[in-house]
């Protein structure tokens, strides 16, 4: 008696659950220390000490009815003002609290954005490989996700293919940089070219095309690579941000949506985001953690831990013959699988106690994703298994 | 460029915003202490001291990666087990962690329930007056809310009218007791009769009809009145619970959904609720507060504060000529307005600095709602304004 759509969703997600169960089964046979789980994006780096301090301060000093009570569906005004100020400082903008809505993480943010923008059958374009939930989020509101494949040698979006895919029903483009699953970062040139293309298409079609940037990995960028901020380049820009990774708080569901003041229908979009937060049942982003992050805006986890993991794993895999675009950010590697059938390859990997996610899950077969947000020691210990796996094919 | 549906939602909610702005305007003219805002359901009673203690313990003793990290989309297993045990103790049931999904408050809970159950055009029945968001929550998933009016002399649901409204498209009935906006509590006899009716209709139609109980006010019951637990009476029962009121934590968005093990398709419903939590963007109920409430299951705010408020306000209004069903729970009064046009009546009330919500907002014109979750002193001070308002009409 569950809905037809949910039947599909449940059967798809049972595959992931099966992998999880398989991991537990392997751990029970070989011992947890001998199973190498590269399948989850759950940050292993501890939140900065500032979080604990902020929680303690707020709980002991502020009024509990204020800290745990309702506020505007958009979030506390003072929290939004502080975040706006922090963004302005970093990216030379002039945002205020009125540009922001606090959200239950980036997932909550993307859902209120799509609820706000999409009429049934409107189209949202993304580039493969991509985070599979985009398809669900767009579908929640009757929209259609249109997938434009990227060049798999660089994972740069193919702007010519994008141009062909834009039509009068195109309501938004969603990008994700630093990227899950590839770890690549979109260059300033790319963002400029993309913005120019969207401007041109808007004019041609007489429509508004929103550029949505999903940014849970913004702070995880290595080697000094800059992540361009789309509000500096494109008028119809919306950023969905999350503190899940930058502060290692994924369970707390805290993030925000920020819109450019220059966007089309800004005066309609902001109250609609506020109302969408309410009627989708989020009501507001969790209150204590709104106040906590406002005290930790200049803190972040130690990104060097992730960088060392990347270097260790990337260098080793390339050395033993894997082909992989070197990631500049996030905590994922997306190498080519050593046989075309990536699902089969993931099964083979399991024989060496390696849990990996087939590229098909990101609509990019022939690859696999490794989440290296696990301990350095564990990665070191896993290298032998990768050697054995590679030896079967190379 | 926002969606057509959101245009409607925004214009409706701008009425509420206008009231809020009007309250601020009045406060700036007459002073905040002279404006009597009975419009909001924001608990004014402080959370119990146990909350602070629990936060401090968890933050200082437990691993931050566990406390703030991802867990199952259904919530921490140990938290769900503790809640199940607590429910079992109170209502003599045999629930386990597998009967529960932790949710972002009751609002999040109702949304994952409807996402799980509803195909487009499925019908959900409720009784007026009712919490207006039900219409939005059902509409989020293409369902249709069917409204069965209650007898306005008692606000008891009319089961004959309900029977007429049930058809093959009826997927669920949603009830709310203690009730917003009337404050009434459904008796055991009513729940038994309702269950019997639903059993009969299920058999006649060969369908499953789920009974959903929205229970943010369960603990707010006065004079020893019992609130029957529907899992004890009806097989296809789902309860959406929230700690927003019982622990004064509405901003933290913490609650759960609990399903009867005997329900139809229990084995499909539970994983579907889990997946719905994920794909609607909630992902999981906020992690720290899952752990906090698990330590506070036997705590609650001091309900006597609300009872004193009820007695003061109810007794006075009845004395000066208002007609009102005496509420046995929640923190609302729902008297008849002194003229048929409740919107006009609310405007008149504003002239005496009384902010009240017209019954039309709950699909029950000719009445108005007073939220008495404000301070006793403030209520005392407001009585003079009610006297003046009544004098205009009586």
TrEMBL record, chains A, B:
It comes from the Bacteria. Its EC number is 2.6.1.-. One of its GO terms (molecular function) is transaminase activity. PANTHER family: ASPARTATE AMINOTRANSFERASE YHDR-RELATED. Belongs to the class-I pyridoxal-phosphate-dependent aminotransferase family. It comes from Clostridium coskatii. Gene3D superfamilies: Aspartate Aminotransferase, domain 1, Type I PLP-dependent aspartate aminotransferase-like (Major domain). Residues 34-384 form the Aminotransferase class I/classII large domain. The lineage of its organism: Bacteria, Bacillati, Bacillota, Clostridia, Eubacteriales. Its cofactor is pyridoxal 5'-phosphate. This is Aminotransferase. Keywords: Aminotransferase, Transferase. SUPFAM superfamilies: PLP-dependent transferases. InterPro entries: Aminotransferase_I/II_large (IPR004839), NHTrfase_class1_PyrdxlP-BS (IPR004838), PyrdxlP-dep_Trfase (IPR015424), PyrdxlP-dep_Trfase_major (IPR015421), PyrdxlP-dep_Trfase_small (IPR015422).
């Amino acid at each position: 008696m569950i809905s037809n759509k949910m039947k599909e969703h449940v059967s798809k997600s049972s595959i992931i659950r099966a992998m999880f169960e398989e991991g537990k089964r392997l751990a029970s046979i070989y011992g947890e220390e001998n199973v190498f789980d590269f399948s989850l994006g759950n940050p292993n780096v501890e939140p900065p000490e500032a979080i604990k301090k902020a929680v303690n301060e707020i709980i002991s000093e502020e009024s509990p009815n204020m800290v745990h009570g309702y506020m505007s569906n958009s979030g506390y005004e003072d929290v939004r003002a502080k975040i706006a100020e922090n963004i302005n400082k970093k990216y030379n903008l002039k945002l205020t609290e009125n540009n922001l809505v606090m959200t239950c993480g980036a997932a909550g943010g993307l859902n209120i954005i799509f609820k706000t923008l999409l009429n049934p059958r409107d189209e949202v374009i993304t580039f493969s490989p991509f985070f599979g939930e985009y398809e669900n989020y767009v579908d929640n509101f009757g929209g259609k996700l249109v997938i434009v494949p990227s060049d798999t040698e660089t994972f740069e979006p193919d702007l010519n293919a994008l141009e062909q895919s834009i039509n009068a029903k195109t309501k938004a483009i969603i990008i994700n940089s630093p990227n899950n699953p590839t770890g690549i970062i979109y260059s300033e040139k790319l963002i400029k070219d993309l913005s120019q293309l969207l401007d041109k298409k808007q004019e041609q079609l007489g429509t508004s095309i929103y550029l949505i940037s999903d940014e849970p990995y913004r702070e995880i960028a290595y080697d000094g690579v800059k992540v361009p901020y789309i509000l500096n380049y494109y008028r119809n820009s919306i950023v969905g941000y999350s503190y899940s990774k930058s502060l290692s708080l994924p369970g707390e569901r805290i993030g925000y949506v920020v819109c450019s003041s220059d966007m089309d229908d800004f005066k309609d979009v902001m109250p609609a985001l506020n109302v969408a937060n309410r009627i989708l049942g989020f009501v507001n982003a969790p209150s204590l953690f709104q106040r906590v992050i406002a005290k930790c805006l200049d803190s972040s986890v130690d990104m060097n831990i992730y960088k060392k993991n990347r270097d260790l794993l990337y260098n080793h895999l390339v050395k033993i013959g894997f082909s992989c675009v070197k990631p500049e950010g996030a905590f994922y590697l997306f190498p080519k699988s050593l046989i075309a059938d990536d699902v089969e390859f993931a099964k083979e990997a399991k024989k060496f106690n390696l849990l990996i996610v087939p590229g098909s899950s990101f609509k990019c077969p022939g690859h696999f994703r490794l989440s290296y947000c696990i301990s350095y020691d564990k990665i070191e210990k896993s290298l032998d298994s990768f050697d054995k796996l590679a030896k079967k094919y190379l």
